[in-house]
Amino acid sequence: MKRKKTVDPNQLELALLFSPDTERRHETDAVTRPAAPHSPVSIPVRANHTLAEQALPPASEGVPESKFQPEPGPEFEAASEEALQAVIQEPRLWSESGWTARVTMNDNSDGWAVEMTMDGDAGPSLVMPWPKERGSDEPKPLDVTAVATLIKNAAAERRKHEKQLHAMLHKSVKVATRSAMVTVALDISPDEDNATATLTAYDEFAVQLAQVRVAPTFKLNKASAAKWIDSQFRRPER
After folding, report:
1. 118 by DSSP, 3-state: which?
2. Are 88 and 95 in contact (CB under 8 A)?
3. Is residue 137 part of a domain?
4. Is residue 222 part of a domain?
5. What is the per-residue pLDDT across 150-200, written as a single tens digit (0 to 9) for each?
6. Residues 185 and 163 in one domain
7. Where are the alpha helices (DSSP H) in the chain?
């Protein structure tokens, strides 16, 4: 009795796929089927337009002008007023470089005087006699050269006054003790109603040893500093 043969479906599919008839059909289709035409890509171009004509409009075009020019406020008005004051150039009043020159009558005689005041100061830094106009009792007018010299002299006088004031408010002396050299400093904080002062001791390495409050009228010298050191830095009575 003969055994019945079974066919694997996968092998049957491969046999049909690579059979000569199948290959001939594929070749025939490749020859007879027309190739798909390539559709060209069209890019629209604006003719007769230069790059300048195609430039973008400015960002501010079409925007109301008021949005770019804010209305002046109090700060603008104050700055404008200061600018006007800074360019005053009159025969008896001149403002320049933060200084104001003012020609006034001299109280001590029948002559004239000029005051130099720095902006922000309560009073003048320099007051000096001012000459008269030749053949007249009127003062000589202020000019660029004269004001430049006045500013130079007033600035030097102001620096001198500041150094003197600093020396009055900040004093120090050195006292040699058995173990080291001690520096005693007096610092005064000026105030019209309640001035204060501090007395501080430092060693030779600038290390603070002690500090106490004292009266602004405390007189610092080597004798008073040595007495304070000998008292183990107790607060002086006066």
Report:
1. strand
2. yes
3. yes
4. yes
5. 999 999 999 999 999 999 999 999 999 988 999 999 999 988 788 999 999
6. no
7. 9-17, 20-32, 74-86, 144-169, 222-230
